[in-house]
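Two records follow; treat each independently.
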Amino acid sequence: MRLIQLEYFIKAAQLENITLAANELFISQPALSKQISQLEDELGAPLFIKDGRRIKLSPYGKRFLPYVEESLNQLKSGISEVEQMKFHLQNSIAIHLSVCSMWIPEFIQSFHQHDPSLFFSISQHRQHEPAYDYLITSELNQEDNFIALFEEPLMLAVPKDHPLAAQESISIKDIKQQTVIGLTKHNALRQTLDSYMKQLNVKLDIAYECDDPATLRGLITSHIGITFVPVVSWHELVTDSIILKPLSEGSMTRTVYLCWHNTTKKKPFHDKIVMDVTRFFKEKEAHAHIKLPYTCQ
């Protein structure tokens, strides 16, 4: 029993005419009659009864028809599911952002406008190694390909009415006398800060830790403590309530990279993704060039 025989059987049952059915199927009448005859031989029962120049379903045909229709409908649904799955796999992009997480909504909107067919899977927290096609990070993995998106300074964020806000720059000695807050140690920004402090042979006493940058910004504006923030990627949260001050001991910076695996390079949209991500972050960097004193929420 072949699929084509079942399709021919349904068409003949719908039109009750071998000639009309053959015309719609773009085959000859003898070819259609042969396929139906072979199906009847396999079933061991006649499916049609001649009625003048027309045909009609036999009792066997009437019983068989709904099962054939249901089976073919299920098969079409299965084929459709596979096609949709292929489409999503071919057009899906897994992106992990260990930095610049506040840009995610604008980032996705930008890509959706350029190509609505792309399906994005976004992750942020990297407590475990995520599966990704692209990684936006300030920490390079030697196995990945990468390009630098932009470089940004890290500056100390203090409330505008804080005693340190009047100083041109703030020393490590001044910081150690204040309540310092920060992100947890698995966060990329915290790791960058710890690396700089290690170079200066300084260990900051962080009084409060949190794993969410938005919560950290809330703690700053609530005058809970002071902390270091990236100037470019946090610049859109600017208000008059927070002042950003440089460190007296020297400038602190971090570079934000776009990384991808070798297998990602084989995807048809790879070149476009790299170009669009680069464009997006370059535009964000250009819009962040504001003069000192900086303020951020």
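The next record belongs to a different protein.
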Amino acid sequence: MKKVEISRARKIWWKIGIFLRKLLIYVISVGPIPTHVAFIMDGNRRYAKKMNLGSEAAGHTAGFLSLMAMLIYCCELHVKYVTAYAFSIDNFRRGQDEVQSIMDLIEEKIELLIQEDSIVHRYKVRVHFAGKLQLLSEPVKDAAQRLMASTSDYTTILLTICVAYSSTDEIMHAIQESCEEKRSAIGGCKLVQIVDMEKHMYMETAPDPDILVRTSGVDRLSNFLLWQSSCCYLESIHALWPEICLGHLIWAVIKFQQNYSYLAKKKKLLFR
């Protein structure tokens, strides 16, 4: 009897929690809502050590669950684009065993998202992978292609996962592709312009972010979206990535709303 009462109490509190979350999101939606929120997911390994989880893989798994939670909250807020920094090109400099372990983990999580009952299918999330994808292992590349194909018709929100990514490489890639395009063009302007560059960016599928959130209390961009973040609100959170919660996201949106007029004017001046 006691187990039944405990189960009933949990369901009641769960429903209350959902109601309060929807109420909070409704209130915050009165102000301007960001179109694009980007995340630097920092602190998975430190979280594993802090919580004595036994392995770094457990920290990355906890980080994956946090990303899914943030994706749900952004869907409920009607954010149209979410970008997550999952694996930097610089991370390939780590030990071979560690890199292989991370590749295996990325493949495992992608396979979970491919399943029909996953969050991306339930919420109609289109998934896109951005970066120098040829550096990924063949199983990861294959899984990524299958996930992108299976979600290509969804329009609720676009989740861009940056793997084998750095802004330096993205800019160099855009320059090289633009120069090649200009060389092969017959007639017309031969000078590379901003519009040419942006057409060949890895992140050309999404507008510039409105909010860029970094966890673990570090105040740097770590070579992430340097080209795209000139007019966005930067939010540094002291919590490690697996510890991020709805409150952190709501607070970032509130700060974005407080600075909305300034950011809009700055963007207008920059792109006029």
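Discussion point: The chain has ten helices and six strands. How would you locate this feature using only the token line?
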